[in-house]
Amino acid sequence: MGLTGVFQAPADGGSISTGPSTEHLVLSGTGQSTIVVCDHCGNRGDGAVTASHPPPAGKDPVVNVIAVALTLPDDGTQAATVAIRSDLQVSLRKVAAATGATHVALLGPKRLPELLGKEAGTLTPWDAAAAPDVLALYDRSAADLEEFSISDGHDGLLPSIRWSGACGLPALTPYGTDLHHATEAGRCGACKLGHLRSTRAVEVAHVFELGTQYSRPMNLTFTDQHGQLATPWMACSGIGITRCLQTAAELHRDHHGLRWKPGTGPADLHLTVLRADRTEMRKQAE
After folding, report:
1. Which residues fall within 8 angstroms of residue 278, CB to CB, at 6 or more apart?
2. Over the stretch 47-82, which tens digit does the pLDDT of each residue have?
3. Which end of the chain is more exposed for a tag (fewer CB within 10 A), N or C?
């Protein structure tokens, strides 16, 4: 279709797929997608799945605790929490990858008092660690801090907290993993040398690996080569035809207008009769 510079990058399947998905992208300043790119090795992709080390913490960092519900491969459920620096966002896709969950969703505020004994916005890492049947996770951004603030259980903050214990809190030993959306100024998790920058891109196609996310709940089966009933794996994909056309127009133009590449426009040559009122000229053109 005349598109140049198309590349593939791991992506977040959103509400369609909890499994891996791949975007086909074209870099463009008019793109509707924001991706992160390493300035050293070139690794790039959606921030929800791109490996990264968090950017440096600012002054007086705050650690928040986000509660989520995990759907396990056996269709069971598990409550979990993620301790993360307040300036970063939890990536539900990275939580799924770290725990093996088939689906991850934020826990509604009405369920928090029942599971953790606290209202939304007042949870601390120590609440999560003490809660029975709750998996406590720690993003690197929080686990690597030496001193930080946490909620005081009401509307304020408790400063000068350390993992080694402070203000009457026992010591915690958090194991940090990459659970945050990769963001500008973070360090690349692939080469560990470069830093990430944000750039715009157009998503022209997407491939979703669905696994058994839909076929298992629908009890969809087939008979395999051994005569046994099996659950099929599914996938779906889509190409944005009109978006590809718009992107080609954006890439192939100059100050005079569109410059379609050969084979991509409605015709390779347009012959215009400047004086169609002159019979001889019109006949020659035709």
Report:
1. none
2. 999 999 999 998 899 999 999 999 888 888 999 999
3. C
